[in-house]
Amino acid sequence: AADRGPVVLAASSLQGALGEAADAWAARGHARPLLSFAASSALARQAMAGAPADLFVSADEAWMDALARAGRLRGGTRATLAANRLVLIAPAGSKVEIAIQRRFALAAALGSGRLAIADPAAVPAGRYAKTALAHYGVWDSVAPKLAPAENVRAALALVERRAAPLGIVYATDARASRRVRQVALFPASSHPPIRYPVAILKASRHRDAAAFRAFLLSLHGRAILARHGFAAP
Amino acid sequence: MAIDIDVERRLGERNIAARFTAGPGLTALFGPSGAGKTSILNMVAGLLRPDRGHIRIGERTLFGPGIDLAPEARRVGYVFQDGRLFPHRRVRANLLYGHDLAPPANRWMGFDEALAFLGIGHLLDRWPQSLSGGEAQRVAIGRALLAAPELLLLDEPLASLDAARRGEIMAVIERIRDELRVPILYVSHDRAEVERLATEIVPIGG
Amino acid sequence: MAIDIDVERRLGERNIAARFTAGPGLTALFGPSGAGKTSILNMVAGLLRPDRGHIRIGERTLFGPGIDLAPEARRVGYVFQDGRLFPHRRVRANLLYGHDLAPPANRWMGFDEALAFLGIGHLLDRWPQSLSGGEAQRVAIGRALLAAPELLLLDEPLASLDAARRGEIMAVIERIRDELRVPILYVSHDRAEVERLATEIVPIGG
Amino acid sequence: MMSAELWGIVALSLRVGALAVALTLPLAFALAWILARWRFPGRVLLDALVHLPLVLPPVVTGWLLLVAFGPAGPVGRWLEEWFGVVLIFRWTGAALAAAIMALPLMVRAMRLSIEAIDLRLEGAARTLGAGRWHAFRTVSLPLALPGIFAALVLGFARSIGEFGATITFVSNIPGETQTLPLAIYSALQVPGGEAMVTRLALLSVVLSLAALVLSEWLVRRSHGERARRGD
Amino acid sequence: MMSAELWGIVALSLRVGALAVALTLPLAFALAWILARWRFPGRVLLDALVHLPLVLPPVVTGWLLLVAFGPAGPVGRWLEEWFGVVLIFRWTGAALAAAIMALPLMVRAMRLSIEAIDLRLEGAARTLGAGRWHAFRTVSLPLALPGIFAALVLGFARSIGEFGATITFVSNIPGETQTLPLAIYSALQVPGGEAMVTRLALLSVVLSLAALVLSEWLVRRSHGERARRGD
Ligand SMILES: Nc1ncnc2c1ncn2[C@@H]1O[C@H](COP(=O)(O)OP(=O)(O)OP(=O)(O)O)[C@@H](O)[C@H]1O
Ligand SMILES: Nc1ncnc2c1ncn2[C@@H]1O[C@H](COP(=O)(O)OP(=O)(O)OP(=O)(O)O)[C@@H](O)[C@H]1O
Ligand SMILES: [Mg+2]
Ligand SMILES: [Mg+2]
């Protein structure tokens, strides 16, 4: 149908920001894009299977690379949409104070509790967190004290519910929750840049695909992303 | 119509065997409990497969070398020793089950006639579970007769009926035997019943 | 032990009512099919609750104002019109069900004795589903007798048994009646049977 | 008060659940019948196959569906070429995912009922002139009704709740494949979405409650009146 | 060839499945009995409550478990204070999640069997001197066995496959809460993890096949020999 917007497969963590961008795009008289939010892995597999989607926005480079290797991307359309940061969080009432530095006492701060993070074996946010902790030499001491969650939101929920005294999530998640407190921000140098790449899929047939991608990357689009806490790439 | 039966069948550790011919009319199978009477009726009805032998009713071979008619093709009317009314159908629907399946030309007993002599007209809207023992038995008899069978298999049809009812039903059986000439295989332990009804008595087992 | 029964119970559109007293011995309930005989036995056994009335056996009130003994407290032995053997227990386990629950001091019939006069010794390892009609009935009689009841409820216990077996069982019933003085409520349509066994005949419905 | 968007999600869930159950019912019954009545080598294997969607994590089932029914998959390509049927990103695909997840539950429920049927009643029907098929339709099938109703309820509830296989196979497209559980997932992803989650979860509960009440009513109508004589 | 790590995952899955089924069995039977036999106001509501874990997306169930049984949750706090029992991040918590997800399936299966019991047999047992409880134990319970076995199989299979509620409630801790589905999930998340996924999925299938074969054998032993007389 002509009045259906392009199909955008996007990582769940972008839900708020891309939703607003889609509204802004629609306000300009375009058909509103169909946004499908799920884990990057699930979406990438759908794209891999040749699903009739137009845009893919991943939460990490690895899945975008995989699609590129599989020849599923339209050449020259890959770009970085936004960036994010990692933060150390605690439940809102917690008094804990921790400064992030070499061999900082994370394990001691956890006590008998666990550190809630997205599964480092599976989820991008978890992989970044693992690199950052390794960077400061504390990974080995906290590795046995992890609570690896299905995604960043689930890790956040563990801290919100005080099931875990500390957690590592994206700055964008921490910002929006009143139940948690940001304890510290991980310096950007401690992990590879957290980037959300966007690309048009080879299977794309929608004429608005390129225009919507351009809109997202425009000043207006970036302003919306910034409002949701995402950093510029 | 003559009946010619020669069957053998192993059941657990027992071997049920019977071999008899009988003329038209009512053939009573007479024998002690556990002799195999019900098993023989089951073989005639096509519900139990003989290990060997043959079953012929008049011109028709129901079972024999290379022949094993399906139960529905045998056109028997079977009153089971254990009732077997359909629990999910009311009495009326139980009675009409075989009736509606039979070609109208073959029917030899009307619905109302069956209701009358069985005295079950007031039970039509009841569920089988709520019937008394004798009521259920009469419905089972009606169901079998209404299916327009060419051969009747009656396994203790009058057990647990009172004398008056018993007499009425025996009269109907006699009519079926004599006027309609439907051959009947009849199992009963009641001497008086058998002596009144039977054209021939076949002793089973013992 | 005297029996004093006065009960009433609505079943669907029918009202079952009975009122009679009887001396010790065997009281036969005699009446047409559907008269309510089974329902009365069920009320005595505690399986069907009377709407009003009382049931007294000798000194014991089984049912009455403010009294409604549980079935297991009534100590009746019930041979059901429809068998009701436990399908998940072999014949032996069916027979021993009530036997093992009764205090040994109360038992008045031995296991082997029951097997002998019922002729079911060879069936002990069989499943009820594989029994013939008469075999199942004999097992049901054995199961009830072995539970050491103080009152016997027999609902057409001899239907579908052959004459020889019938005679043997009647002899045992006579012995229970006369020697053990267990009161018996007996339902049968067989005149001869009733006349031979009954101390008293109570007409039901009609 | 419910917004048009919520209504759309509910309507879609109902549509997906209804199609899923309708799709599965005959297949599940056939499988239940075969497993209950036939003895053949490989029966346990078939049984295991039926249980598969229960044992595998839903994401794996969804992934397998994607591999088989996706545009590049063998079945998917064939369906598209011959029938023009596309399942990926469509509500029909969501129904397929739900149907497969509901299958094991439905088969088991019906199998229990079929195994409980008194075979002698079928024999009685045959002697009354009913062919195999007629006896099946008029005796076996009605006697298996309790299992069929249970299967309907279980299958519908499972379909209404299906998440993992659906999102993996047909993604999370509003208006097309975003059923209640997927909408709940989306709401869970936005910080502070708990109110929405609660609202959507309550809607799910109401739907299943309605389905339950309906099925109880159907059961009672179909054979509740048959007084059971427990005496 | 299987690494020690894989063995650990399989052993944990078995442990979780076994505890989940053992936990649920008596509760599910009681619920099935009540739903099959009792008539009381609120019965449909109880029925709906039992179906809840089927209707709600597993993640929501996991989240509710977290809210209730987490260290800050009312039940969780109470359990810890009074019994020193901690469920979160423990394999026992995984079993609880699996148990709750399996509950509706188990209740339905047993309920079907209980509803099929011939009440007159219980009456017969009572006249033979069996009290209510003894009649239940010796007659009703054995006659409900087909449903109990079906419940065991369904419940175990569901437990072996449970993912969403488990990972949300007790997270994905290797050696403690990482059951097969969670390991499969991890493998599915990384590009090129398909080989591992296949290996783990095959393990799940083998487990459930073994459970099926075992249950078939138990069923046959318990009452397969009872020749059914279909004639
Ligand atoms: N599956 C089986 N295994 C072992 N024995 C069996 C099986 N089925 C039937 N029998 C036996 O076969 C015999 C014949 O049974 P059948 O029902 O034909 O007897 P019957 O003559 O009708 O007896 P009754 O007058 O008591 O009804 C019985 O002794 C019965 O126990
Ligand atoms: N639930 C019910 N609804 C309606 N009528 C019922 C119900 N239960 C029993 N009846 C009727 O009550 C009457 C008495 O039944 P009961 O079984 O006591 O008869 P009976 O004297 O034992 O008869 P039979 O000699 O035929 O066994 C019967 O007419 C029966 O149809
Ligand atoms: Mg017989
Ligand atoms: Mg009676």
UniProtKB/TrEMBL annotation, chains B, C:
Keywords: ATP-binding, Nucleotide-binding. The keyword ATP-binding applies. Gene3D superfamilies: P-loop containing nucleotide triphosphate hydrolases. InterPro entries: AAA+_ATPase, ABC_transporter-like_ATP-bd, ABC_transporter-like_CS, Molybdenum_import_ModC, P-loop_NTPase. Residues 2-204 form the ABC transporter domain. SMART domains: AAA. PROSITE patterns: ABC_TRANSPORTER_1, ABC_TRANSPORTER_2. Pfam families: ABC_tran. GO terms for molecular function: ATP binding. PANTHER family: ABC TRANSPORTER I FAMILY MEMBER 10 (PTHR43514:SF4). This is ATP-binding cassette domain-containing protein. It comes from Sphingopyxis jiangsuensis.
